[in-house]
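ok trying again, last paste got cut off:
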Amino acid sequence: MGITNYPIADFLSGLKNAVLARSRLFEYKSMKLVKEVAFCLSRIGYIEKIEEDKERGVIRVFLKYSHKLPIISDIKIVSKPGLRVYWNLKKLEEYKKPQMLIISTPKGILSSKEALKERVGGEVIASVW
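nice, full thing came through this time. structure:
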């Protein structure tokens, strides 16, 4: 694992690759923001469990499967370092697609459903379905 400019995108693309490889376990360098995104995915129901190995400095993400098929179908990075995408509450309310959004808000990393419940907008990090 090398140094990256955008660790969240690196984490999510690694997670997507693990899903495509039908792996049950994915390890990534432990960082606060990455852990928050992982816990958000866990709350939504896409991840079975998360363990932190402080000795090695990594988090272990156990992917969730249903009938031998991964719960996560695809992950698309929305915000990038060169182009940040921000949505206000009104735009979130108008969003009717089946994909779940991961949003960085003043109240932490939330799913689009949680952001609507909390009545906040923010930076759209990724779309997961």
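cool. The longest strand covers residues 47-53. The two ends are 26 Å apart (CA to CA).
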